[in-house]
Amino acid sequence: MATTSLDLARVRNIGIMAHIDAGKTTTTERILFYTGVSYKIGEVHDGAAAMDWMEQEQERGITITSAATTCHWPLEEVDHTINIIDTPGHVDFTIEVERSLRVLDGAVTVFDGVAGVEPQSETVWRQADRYGVPRICFVNKLDRTGAEFHRCVDMITDRLGATPLVMQLPIGAEADFKGVIDLVTMKALVWPVEAAKGEMYDTVDIPATHAEAAEEWHGKLLETVAENDDQMMELYLEGKEPSVEQLYEAIRRVTIASGKSSGTTVTPVFCGTAFKNKGVQPLLDAVVRYLPSPLDVEAIEGHDVKDPEQVIARRPSDEEPLSALAFKIMSDPHLGKLTFVRVYSGRLVAGSAVLNSVKGRKERIGKIYRMHANKREEIESVGAGDIVAVMGLKQTTTGETLSDEKNPVILESMDFPAPVIEVA
Ligand code: GDP
């Protein structure tokens, strides 16, 4: 059984947020499909089984049924673990939405390329602002009649008050949408007209018809990044073109820093059509490249059990005392009651005793599972920054903290901030 000590730099805890019908389910389903295909490659012994499963799922579609689903994506041949946290579909200011946002480190916001920014896109955006969640955007449904990428980008500025970083330009429109120009590498990514699920794009030179627009938007990208990043500004003022790596790094810094700050959110914007299988692989690259890892959250603050005024900070390290937040309880048809937890510090070990610091009661951790789209994996223990499902918790409800018995802490304050009043 695996004792996972993940390299935290290679973990992403993300949510996918959208106005209803924008394509959140389809995008998530494609992410699970593509990551399932890629993971299979690394697991030769499991290959046949994974393939069978893929074929079955291809017919009925993979849907997230778990509060957190773990998948893997290689970027430049380095494996990354992505935990997708299900954010509730209805977007009231419920405590459940608050809790799922609380355990995320980053998010993908999906927009409908025809409708653009819709009322619920605004609501989820404000919620993510409030929780300081860095975001990337995916303008979906570019195959639809009336879809307009740039109109949606303008709405991100006007309606959301954000600073979009246009990372791609669409090639072709509506039924002729073929691919995108990557404005960092300055290459075109082109899919077959009828791209099948799992089909990879071809990387080719930018078509001559798009060369001028690509140069113009590449220039705008450099300028906007420089306006928001000192290191890039230095290069920019010296008239030096950054390397692709430097640009990736700068975009990552800007996305994370602005996402967490109370100022304007700078957000990289990608595009495609999840349904027609174009654009999801570059989006996965972007999740890994630009969204934060648990290490980018320097420390989580909680408070002393007896004295709510006394702040206790815990770093995302296995060496710190255990602190974990229960954020969702589900009933699994095979396993029974499962409590989903995010471990912020220390290690959570199967069979160990921990303290529910809110109730002041001891709890025993039963089995620990990592939930994948097609299977659950039992693990012995899990470290800081990770998200798993735990069996055996009898008294813990959502929002409560599990801590080291000798070093108790309460992570979630019981008073929620007042809801943001939406101004029409
Ligand atoms: P959700 O409510 O945000 O989860 O949206 P869904 O993923 O369920 O999608 C809503 C509808 O839009 C479904 O009928 C999808 O098949 C369709 N859809 C999703 N993505 C695309 C796309 O890229 N292009 C087109 N034409 N339709 C899409």
Automatic annotation (TrEMBL):
One of its GO terms (molecular function) is translation elongation factor activity. GTP binds at residues 18-25, 86-90, 140-143. It is found in: Cytoplasm. One of its GO terms (biological process) is ribosome disassembly. Residues 9-295 form the Tr-type G domain. One of its GO terms (cellular component) is cytoplasm. Keywords: Cytoplasm, Elongation factor, GTP-binding, Nucleotide-binding, Protein biosynthesis. Catalyzes the GTP-dependent ribosomal translocation step during translation elongation. During this step, the ribosome changes from the pre-translocational (PRE) to the post-translocational (POST) state as the newly formed A-site-bound peptidyl-tRNA and P-site-bound deacylated tRNA move to the P and E sites, respectively. Catalyzes the coordinated movement of the two tRNA molecules, the mRNA and conformational changes in the ribosome. Belongs to the TRAFAC class translation factor GTPase superfamily. Classic translation factor GTPase family. EF-G/EF-2 subfamily. This is Elongation factor G.
